[in-house]
Amino acid sequence: MAERSDLIVFGTGSFAARIIFDIAATAQDPVTVTLAGRNRERLDWLKTAGNARAVIFERPVAFQARTVDLAGEDAAADLIGELRPALVVQAASPQASAIIATTGNAWSQLIAEAGLSAMAVTQTMFSIRVARAIKATRPECHFINCAYPDVGNTIIAALDLPVTCGVGNVSILASVFAAALKAREPGRLKTLAHYQTITPFRQPADSRKGHPPRVWVDGEEIAEVYARLRDVKLTAAPAIDVSGAAGVPLMLALVSGRDWQGHAPGPLGLPGGYPVACRNGHLELALPTGLDKAQALRWNQEFEQTNGLFVDGDGHAHYTGILHEKLHAISVDLAKGFKVSDFDQVFETMEALRVRLIEKPEL
């Protein structure tokens, strides 16, 4: 009989490790997790450490490891088809998330000056390959994309590929806000937050500007978010200590069938981040009373339509604002945007640009 696994986690970096270790420490129901990546030594350590943590915390979790390179077109499909998981989590990336805090080359300068959507295409390629594999071999499986989900999930959905949601971003803010406002019980605090609303909370309170996230506590919306939450400050580096953890209860709920409510970016391929709930094994929006889906969608869409990358109803991806200006100065063709159906070719072009810019000290 073929080997089975409840959950596959693609990736061996620090983000994947946070997820693995928190599953090991918190799972209530028996779960088998397969760790998949190309670095065998790293995989073996994550498996060993994960199983050890499960012993330490007396949790019914078992970890196993499989060597898989997502650069291979059929690698994900072979593993998913063999193991038939209930959930796949894609946390592998061609570049580390630390790029947002890196300086010293033209690529990091582009990201710093034009926004994170500059790397949307390069960050999404592995996730698209995994989504294609799920559609071909295990369409009933849930898929959580950890790679730039606020924007990446809209591309995945526009390609008619399955995606349940992402991890991080809105759930980072929701969790720190709930702690600061002493509204810790599930469902008391609800937040609309695009990834662009995180940046101000990395800065000193007096320097914050731009559209803040929208926050409700017990059904009442907070009027002055920056003032009410001035004491909340994130690290300048990626908040992976929070963002990976924020996705773990949802992952375990999707595997076990338990109900859960919280927040997630890119749910069901939507742009930005929303309050969500898991009921009877399915994810759905759980918006505050008085806010409908169309209103929440428009609020999140505005960020990328002003500056970033958004996908229209005809499946065309558009670069906007400062990002469009910066790209136009580098590549007129790339700045025109692209049809999502041409994504593979666009990825090759953008990846070549990334490699070229990394070798330059500045734009």
Summarize the amount of helix as a percent range: 40-55%
Specify Rg, calculated over alpha carbons. Answer: 20 Å
Task: Kindly report the spatial arrangement of strands forming the biggest sheet.
Answer: 3-2-1-4-5-6
Question: Strand-and-helix sequence, N→C?
Answer: EHEHEHEHHEHEHEEEHHEEEHEEHHEH
Mean pLDDT: 93
Strand content: 15-25%
Shape: globular
Class derived from helix and strand content: alpha/beta
Q: How many helices does DSSP assign?
A: 13
Could you please describe the fold and organization of this structure?
It is a single chain. With 363 residues, the chain is an alpha/beta fold. It has 13 helices and 15 strands. It has helices spanning 14-26, 40-56, 75-83, 106-114, 120-137, 149-158, 170-180, 225-228, 240-256, 293-306, 321-330, 332-335, 343-358, and strands at residues 7-10, 31-37, 61-67, 87-90, 142-145, 165-166, 189-192, 214-217, 220-221, 260-265, 273-279, 282-285, 308-311, 316-320, 338-339. A six-stranded parallel beta sheet has the order 3-2-1-4-5-6, with helices on both faces. A three-stranded antiparallel beta sheet has the order 7-8-9. Strand 11 and strand 12 form a beta hairpin. It is globular. It starts with 6 loop residues before the first strand and ends in a 5-residue tail after the last helix.
